[in-house]
Amino acid sequence: MLDMELHIDPSELQPLGEYDFERKLNVREIREWMQQNWYKSFFVVMAYLIVIFGIQHFMKERRAYNLRAPLTLWSFSLALFSAIGAYRVWKQVAFILSTKGLKQSVCSQSFYVHPVSKLWVFLFVLTKFLELGDTVFIVLRKNKLIFLHWYHHATAMVVSWYGYKEMVAGSGWLTALNFSIHAIMYSYYTVRAAGFQVPRSIAMVITISQMVQMLAYVVMNALIIFWMEDKVCHTTWTVVFLSSVVYISLLVLFCNFFFKTYLSSTKKSKGE
């Protein structure tokens, strides 16, 4: 049953080969739960920061754990999950884009209720909690924990949970892009964790893709602001402001990381 507060064009709900487990998700119950509990994401983030910096302090005088096998399995699982999610959501994005155009593909709320995408958009939001586990591996293995890493995880979780609670525009593109990049990124982590050498250029491409992703999100927010007076393009100024601050700050941080990690080191290696 559709939530009557959502503005849905019935033609966007055409079956796209959905599976039974996708169709069974009760969107109304999920939305009610999110409306009542989204604020708990702040408590999760606080607990996350206490835990990771607590473990980091605990590990100062101890030997790093290897954790190669569990990290390989963890990364492979997230890579596979992200690839499946990307395929399922892109299917709906492509359908709306080809039949309704760019504006509707950005603004449509059908991603929250479509038999295929509704499950994957919700799981996408939940993975922002699951992905906090990445940082646990970093601190237990005593790898360098940079600000960009934990800031990215913390802000993504809060913004994703709040955006889902409001069921705002842009969910289809945001979910599909993020799933796609994570499928590549976690595949890279899987190969690295398994002990194989990966060309430096692959890591550069992944960072560039993350920069492009954040730029795409900024552009998408600009379009949503331009279209938000249209009843079809639902959002709130709170979501627009919070997400824009996060996307722009992450774009700056990724650009800074790329410059320091790849460009500066390249110049040094050439003796410049």
UniProtKB/TrEMBL annotation:
- Name the PANTHER family for this protein: ELONGATION OF VERY LONG CHAIN FATTY ACIDS PROTEIN 3 (PTHR11157:SF68), FATTY ACID ACYL TRANSFERASE-RELATED (PTHR11157)
Which EC number(s) does the record attach to this protein?
2.3.1.199
Q: Which PROSITE patterns match?
A: ELO
Membrane-spanning parts: 38-59, 71-90, 119-140, 147-164, 170-189, 201-227, 239-259
Keyword presence, Ribosomal protein? no
Its UniProt entry gives the catalysed reaction(s) as: a very-long-chain acyl-CoA + malonyl-CoA + H(+) = a very-long-chain 3-oxoacyl-CoA + CO2 + CoA
Sorted alphabetically, which keywords does the UniProt record give?
Fatty acid biosynthesis, Fatty acid metabolism, Lipid biosynthesis, Lipid metabolism, Membrane, Transferase, Transmembrane, Transmembrane helix
Mode of membrane association:
Multi-pass membrane protein
The protein here is known as Elongation of very long chain fatty acids protein
Chief location bin: membrane
Gene Ontology MF terms: fatty acid elongase activity
**Classification via InterPro entries:** ELO_CS, ELO_fam
Q: Which GO terms describe its biological process?
A: fatty acid biosynthetic process
Phylogenetic placement of the source organism? Eukaryota, Metazoa, Chordata, Craniata, Vertebrata
Query: Where does the record say this protein resides?
Result: Membrane
Keyword Transmembrane included in the entry's annotation: yes
List GO terms (cellular component aspect): membrane
Q: What class of enzyme is it?
A: transferase
Family note: Belongs to the ELO family.
